[in-house]
Amino acid sequence: MLGAIVTYLIVPFIRQKTTKEQRENIYFWAKVAVVVAEQIYKEKGQGKLKKEYVVDFLVNKGINITIRELDILIESAVKGLNIIQYEVDHN
């Protein structure tokens, strides 16, 4: 499922401007930032703070893509995290 999200949403937006290695690096750091934000902001209703943290983190890492592309990366990473959490909770 996560692979499909990456393939159909993220790749078309980022592929034009980056190499495969750069894309893998960008997505790796997006996943790291989402996990960290989830650990820092554990309470309900803190989605905006989580997103701000992730965006700031990626910008500080020198990720040079548009806000729309960042949004897609973040949503994909969150979805992947939610899938993993669901599998852990239901197994």
Structure summarized in a few sentences:
The protein is mainly alpha-helical.
Description:
- The protein is an all-alpha fold.
- Helix content is 78%, strand content 0%.
- It has helices spanning 2-14, 20-40, 47-60, 67-89.
- The longest helix is centred in the last third of the chain and has 23 residues, at 67-89.
- The protein starts with a helix and ends with a helix.
- The model is unreliable at 1-7 (pLDDT under 50).
Features:
91 residues; mainly alpha; 4 helices; 78% helix; 0% strand
Inertia-based shape: globular
What is the typical, i.e. mean, pLDDT?
A: 79
H/E series, N to C?
HHHH
Proportion of residues in extended strands: under 5%
How does the SSE layout of this entry go?
Layout: H1 2-14, H2 20-40, H3 47-60, H4 67-89
